[in-house]
Amino acid sequence: MDRIQQLKSLQKIRKIASLLDSAIGIPGTKFRIGLDPILGLIPGGGDLITAGISAYMIYLATRFGLERKEISKMIGNVILETALGTVPLAGDIFDAYFKANLRNLEILENHIAKAEAQNPKLKAIVDEKIVINS
């Protein structure tokens, strides 16, 4: 994958993580929630919908050459959040606090930073805030 595709993928992953885990601020607090706990309120399918979106995010992240251990951790985060998210009300509260997608984004960004530290010829893409029209 070339640099432009990496930047587009990283930007897409960041948007998905933000949308699912921190898109909405709670007035009067610093706490933020995303669509994940809200969609989790839909009986019988809300958690599966967000798990599918999270799986797509993991698929995009695998293009960055993540190690099996990192991918497993990402999948584990989504499985944990999905499984516990199915518990009525308590699961939705857990979803709001656990934020599996932001955790997975952090795993990816740490992987990218580590790869760049090992290869100084690569320019840092983790901190780039380039907006690319898709």
UniProtKB/TrEMBL annotation:
The keyword Transmembrane applies. The keyword Coiled coil applies. Keywords: Coiled coil, Membrane, Transmembrane, Transmembrane helix. Residues 98-125 form a coiled coil. It comes from the Bacteria. The chain crosses the membrane at residues 48-66. This is DUF4112 domain-containing protein. It comes from Hyella patelloides LEGE 07179.
